[in-house]
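Margin note from the TA: students keep mixing up input and output lines. Inputs are the sequences; the output is the structure of the whole complex. Example:
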Amino acid sequence: MTTHIKTIVKGNLASTIKNGGCGQCQTSCQSACKTSCTVGNQVCEK
Amino acid sequence: MLRIKDYSIKKNVHIYHQGGLNIAYDVNSGSLHVLDDHTYGFIEEMRNLQDEDPSMLHAEEKLLTKVGRNLSPTVKKEILLELEELQNQNLLFSSEAEEIEPCYPNPPLIKAICLHVAHDCNLRCRYCFAGTGPFKGRRELMTSETGKRALDFLFKHSGNRRQCEVDFFGGEPLLNMSVIKELISYGKTVARQAGKEIKFTLTTNAVLLDKAIADYLEKEGVSVVLSLDGRKEVNDKMRPFPNGKGSYENIVPQILYFTKLRPSSSPYAVGQYYYVRGTYTRYNTDFYNDVLHMADLGIKRISVEPVIASPDDDYAFREEDIDKIKESYDILGEEVLEYKQKGREFSFFHFNAGLNEGPCLPKRLSGCGAGHEYVAISPDGSIYPCHQFVGQEDYKLGTVYQGNPLKEELVRKFRGAHVYNKEDCRICWARFSCSGGCHAANAAFNGELTKVYSLGCELQKKRLEVAYYLKIKEAQQIETV
């Protein structure tokens, strides 16, 4: 039980270097920006 | 013991205050935590000591002894134990991601094209990167023959990838509606024959978006990005017709008709969606008012982005604007929460944050894929790395009329412009979220793909901070329900 830190989101990003990269995700710039690339706000489509 | 030998806190754990919360974002795992004041101060002290005295990076025992002297021994022990436990679970102070460069197939596998069906426009937006339509060339429309060649090029080069994407772009694509219709029909037929799925999007200023066209796009399942800058006076200052008259009155009813066709449009731009997209300049650094104006009109999916401008442009941001812009993002974040509470929820595209459900690290390293996964095709069939490079001959990759492969040297250059090859990104906490920024902005401001556009970075980091804050608030609201 933690009293000083509350974890809100548990991620495992670093481990996806091994099993990620299927390439099925949408191209980031096609969606709604066209001028300011943000990849991290997409969802994985796997 | 907490293991922080050779572990740069500044690079790997981002702590900040937002909306009265102490937030820690663990860069390598993508985890989010809320800290009490003692823990925030403790991590901040460690980070500052590492900054002030680089030898501290290699002397963890010395560092841990030095920090937290203002805390009682019990509290310090508790904090260290909690940090250690989270480190063991790889959630905070987690191991640095293994540095593996993205690997790509050869020849390049193209999965998306931006099809410039019209290098002409019926508006004369002052900040247009397409030079109000022609992209440094002449005003022209793409023929259906070139469009079909472009789709053939996409199918041929998409390899075993099932989903292919086509964005109808311009200038103003609706100026060439007959060709768009022909290409949608052709693309769907060929995709079916090839066992692929084709996804269409269209980016329009909405001037010609009458009911017939809106209903057609709805029927064909085309996702649509509609341009509107917000309040009438803001929109009309930058987005006039050629005669100088503002476009707001003409486009808003058409935009609202279309958005009402898609009430359940995905905030993450998945499936058949719409987004209303605007640009803000130094004339509306209070752009949160424009976002709220659109939300008040009933628009649910909103993206408003900073203008990319030459420093000589009167509307370009100046140093003194930065704080005002950041404050606008803060206000907007609170308004997002407020509107949700009032049952008038809307989403702001750049406050989306894919954390545990977001893209994998290989995707985050490689970014938008311009120049090798994503290309733009101009009306004459020329291929460029993305829509913003169209018309820049140095960046021409080939044409759809030649069977030749894409210019290898350029493909290599774009593939190489990933996070680990950008000096500033390697040590930045936002590196796995922005993926090194926009290639076109980097090239325009610094002449190199691997040198970042620093103003863009600063704003991107602010947006991410608010986005993570909103994730926390969302989780806290779920908990209290």
